[in-house]
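Translate structure to sequence.
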């Protein structure tokens, strides 16, 4: 039975790029150095989900990329995913709780960092993102992390 599970795991690892990458990253002694970055994970995820036969509305992919942009803005695209902890995701949730409404669309927010955006909301008493939109972003980030595992 144990050998069958190992064989099944090897077959899955060969067919699923993310599992192969993560298996190699976690099995090496230098998992931190050999781990893929957030941007590489996003690229793998988008490529694999785009190749699925399920037709997706183009806006779905745009929404996913917009949600993933929070990860890359906050931690950088070259941040190793094995370095992500629950504290990182707590930071994202806290950020979204105070994030300005329509920050991606409004011209006044265009060149601001995430810290400047939060500061503007606090200082100018600007409206914040709805809980529904924040939850959508968190759900999309969660799907990316589930794909990674």
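Result:
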């Amino acid at each position: 039975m144990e050998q069958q599970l190992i064989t099944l795991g090897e077959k899955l690892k060969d067919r699923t790029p993310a599992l192969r990458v993560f298996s190699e990253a976690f099995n090496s002694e230098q998992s931190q150095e050999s781990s893929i970055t957030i941007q590489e994970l996003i690229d793998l995820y988008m490529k694999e989900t785009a190749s699925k036969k399920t037709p997706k509305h183009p806006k779905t992919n745009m929404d996913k990329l917009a949600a993933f942009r929070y990860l890359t803005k906050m931690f950088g695209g070259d941040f190793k995913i094995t370095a992500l902890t629950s504290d990182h995701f707590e930071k994202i949730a806290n950020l979204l709780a105070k994030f300005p409404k329509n920050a991606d669309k409004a011209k006044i927010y265009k060149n601001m960092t995430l810290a400047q955006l939060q500061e503007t909301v606090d200082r100018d008493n600007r409206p914040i993102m709805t809980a529904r939109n924040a939850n959508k972003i968190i759900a999309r980030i969660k799907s990316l992390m589930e794909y990674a595992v």
